[in-house]
């Protein structure tokens, strides 16, 4: 786990409080976004590009009417690090932007 600052429970609670919609499930943070399918597909492409650039990736689960993101730092032994919360903020911004784009 060298190179990764694993967050304490108190630090995790402080970070999660600043991210509405996200919740902690063990050593993972998760959020489900209600979003139309095609908008979610577009959001996933952008999330994948940003994730590649910062070298940190979320697990994404696409359904017809929602997108679920779950994040943990695999290289830190599946523990939560500051990088997880940074990625969560980025995903929030990306999904918000794609929900605003009318596809019809």
TrEMBL record:
One of the GO biological process terms: tetrahydrobiopterin biosynthetic process
Coiled-coil intervals, chain numbering: none
GO molecular function, one term: 4-alpha-hydroxytetrahydrobiopterin dehydratase activity
Lineage: Bacteria, Bacillati, Actinomycetota, Actinomycetes, Kitasatosporales
Keyword Lyase: yes
Record flagged with keyword Lyase: yes
Membership in a protein family: Belongs to the pterin-4-alpha-carbinolamine dehydratase family.
InterPro entries the record matches: PCD_sf (IPR036428), Pterin_deHydtase (IPR001533)
Record protein name field: Putative pterin-4-alpha-carbinolamine dehydratase
Enzyme class: lyase
Domain of life according to the entry: Bacteria
Entry keyword set: Lyase
Catalytic activity: (4aS,6R)-4a-hydroxy-L-erythro-5,6,7,8-tetrahydrobiopterin = (6R)-L-erythro-6,7-dihydrobiopterin + H2O
Enzyme Commission number(s) from the entry: 4.2.1.96
Pfam families on file: Pterin_4a (PF01329)
């Amino acid at each position: 786990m060298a190179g990764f600052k694993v967050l304490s429970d108190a630090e995790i609670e402080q970070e999660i409080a600043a991210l509405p919609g996200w919740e902690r499930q063990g050593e993972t943070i998760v959020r489900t976004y209600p979003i139309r399918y095609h908008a979610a597909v577009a959001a996933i492409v952008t999330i994948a590009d940003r994730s590649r650039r910062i070298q940190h990736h979320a697990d994404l689960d696409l359904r017809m009417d929602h997108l679920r993101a779950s994040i943990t730092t695999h290289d830190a032994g599946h523990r939560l690090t500051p990088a997880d919360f940074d990625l969560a903020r980025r995903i929030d911004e990306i999904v918000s932007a794609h929900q605003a784009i009318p596809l019809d």
